[in-house]
Amino acid sequence: MILFFISCTIYITVLLFVRPYEHNLKAVPLTFVQNFKLIQASLYLGIFLLSIFFITSNYNFLVIDERAYHLLALSNEITISLPYQIITHLFIHIDLFHLLGNIAGIGLASLYERRVGSKRFLSILAIGCIASIPSTLFHVEATSVAGISGGVYGLFSAYFVDRAELTIKEWLSACLIVAVIMLIISFGQTYQYSSNEYQIDHIGHMLGAIFVMFYCRFKPFRQ
User: Fold this and answer.
1) In 3D, which of 117, 145, 143, 142 has the Cα closest to residue 131?
2) Which CATH class is domain 2-218?
């Protein structure tokens, strides 16, 4: 329980009190309330995911309970998969490191939310999550997926490409930047889950990012 409260406190504190650098030195600093209104989606989403993991880990906040995992994760085996798992698998995480990786990503994505608003932020998150679901079909062996990483990678892509004024050349350059950073992250992920049964779903990450790239190209955010 201590880890849970520490994680929540750090996340809330960072989002509320660490604000982006203002390029305009004459700009009036945001008040606490104004800053809060700009990051509501990322703030509440992070707290929600932390709370879900706290419950599904049987309150130890270290590793998800095996029964909860099999009940809520999305499997590529039709005989054991259940319709509701299409939604529930997005909100559970394997262990604390898996969770904190996505929480950090959502915290960074609050920069994107500040620019486009909560509604667009949540829309892009949902699109990335939905696009990542078919990753289970690319696995020959029986496997299950969990986590909101596809949506987080979608938000990461949108931060670079979701601008209506981008030309095709600029959009392609932004996509290349995203691809290079994702490649570096993928090669740098030497972390292993708590059990050898679990692996990082790189395909799901890629699908979430790519689909959002094209979505933002054809339906970019407009002020």
Assistant:
1) 145
2) mainly alpha
Q: Tell me how far apart the alpha carbons of residues 193 and 12 are, in angstroms, rounded to a whole number.
A: 26
Give the phi and the psi of residue 95 in degrees, each rounded to 5. -150, -175
- By three-state DSSP, how is residue 164 classified? coil
Neighbours of 117 (CB within 10 A): 17
Q: Residue 37: CB partners within 8 Å, gap ≥ 6?
A: none
Q: Which residues pair with 74 in a beta bridge?
A: 145
Contact 86, 74 (CB under 8 A): yes
Closest CA to 134 of 179, 91, 89: 89
Look-up of token digits 């529930």: 88
Q: Distance between CA 188 and CA 106 in Å, rounded? A: 19
- Least Cα distance to 150 among 118, 174, 125 occurs for 125
Tell me the helix, strand and coil percentages in the chain, rounded to 5: 65, 5, 30
- Looking from the CA of 65 toward its CB, the CA atoms found within 13 Å total 13
Q: What is the pLDDT of residues 22-67, one digit of tens each?
A: 555 566 777 888 889 999 999 999 999 999 999 999 999 999 999 9
pLDDT for residue 197: 56
Residue 63 DSSP symbol:
B
Measured CA angle at 122 (ends 162, 145), to 5 deg: 105
In sequence order, the 6+-apart residues with CB closer than 8 A to the CB of 174 are 160, 161, 166
pTM: 0.91
